[in-house]
């Protein structure tokens, strides 16, 4: 672990340049340690795959003083706590291919696989949520089978529908809201994973895991329509 003063308001703490669960746990442990210090000058703590960004209120304290008070020089990556002490697994139903997964055929062709084989490979793994970013509720997931590692699209789309599930290089993830993007879209979930009118607004946090499962078009339409009703039971679909 090392830290750098990026500017007069920002400290970056870096770990090994890898995407794996061990590095993720180190990031989460140090983030948890810093949060528990409750330092009045720290405005925000933003963890990622292998780094933590600290935003500092320099009206209260300069960054060098924050470093000293947090004892960053003495941290040894052996903190005991974890920021997500009750991780959960969320199951996400996905309609693969067709108009909802227009890049499935390209991903299959790129790897000399059938579309069914891509779906099987994508649904058989459990994915760790390393971070939420890009937009509220967008999970960056680790654990994608190496047989599905696929480059981003050369030409990003200007609009990707909410719920779209995609692949970009060695990662998979889903778009909670409509957005531009360059990921290879292989399917779409009808579940609203992020909803400002729901508590909690997001179905998952970093440290949780996601397991995708395949559904047919009839089930997709049923879930979409059911979500318009006040008595929609989302737990029925995401706790499998």
From TrEMBL:
Domain annotation Carboxyltransferase: ranges: 1-204
Entries under InterPro entries matching the protein: CT_C_D, Cyclophilin-like_dom_sf, PxpB
Top EC class, one word: hydrolase
EC number from the UniProt entry: 3.5.2.9
GO terms of molecular function: 5-oxoprolinase (ATP-hydrolyzing) activity; ATP binding
Source superkingdom: Bacteria
UniProt KW Cell cycle keyword: no
Keyword terms of this UniProt record: ATP-binding, Hydrolase, Nucleotide-binding
Keyword Hydrolase: yes
NCBIfam families assigned to the protein according to its UniProt record, in alphabetical order: 5-oxoprolinase subunit PxpB
UniProt protein name: 5-oxoprolinase subunit PxpB
Lineage per the UniProt record: Bacteria, Bacillati, Bacillota, Bacilli, Bacillales
């Amino acid at each position: 672990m090392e830290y750098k003063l990026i500017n007069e308001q920002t400290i970056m703490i870096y770990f090994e340049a890898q995407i794996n669960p061990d590095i993720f746990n180190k990031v989460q442990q140090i983030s948890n340690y810093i949060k528990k210090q409750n330092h009045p000058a720290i405005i925000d703590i933003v963890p990622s795959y292998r780094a933590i960004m600290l935003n500092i209120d320099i009206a209260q304290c300069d960054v060098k003083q924050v470093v000293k008070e947090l004892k960053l020089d003495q941290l040894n990556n052996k903190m005991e706590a974890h920021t997500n002490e009750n991780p959960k697994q969320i199951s996400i139903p996905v309609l693969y291919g067709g108009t909802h997964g227009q890049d499935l055929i390209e991903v299959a062709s790129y790897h000399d696989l059938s579309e069914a084989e891509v779906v099987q490979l994508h649904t058989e793994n459990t994915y760790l949520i390393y971070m939420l970013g890009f937009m509220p509720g967008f999970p960056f997931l680790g654990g994608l089978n190496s047989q599905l590692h696929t480059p981003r699209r050369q030409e990003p789309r200007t609009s990707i529908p909410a719920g779209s599930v995609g692949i970009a290089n060695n990662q998979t993830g889903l778009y909670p809201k409509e957005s531009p993007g360059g990921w290879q879209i292989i399917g779409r979930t009808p579940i609203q994973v992020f909803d400002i009118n729901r508590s909690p607004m997001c179905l998952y946090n970093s440290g949780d895991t996601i397991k995708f499962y395949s559904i047919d078009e009839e089930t997709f339409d049923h879930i979409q329509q059911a979500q318009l009703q006040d008595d929609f039971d989302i737990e029925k679909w995401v706790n499998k």
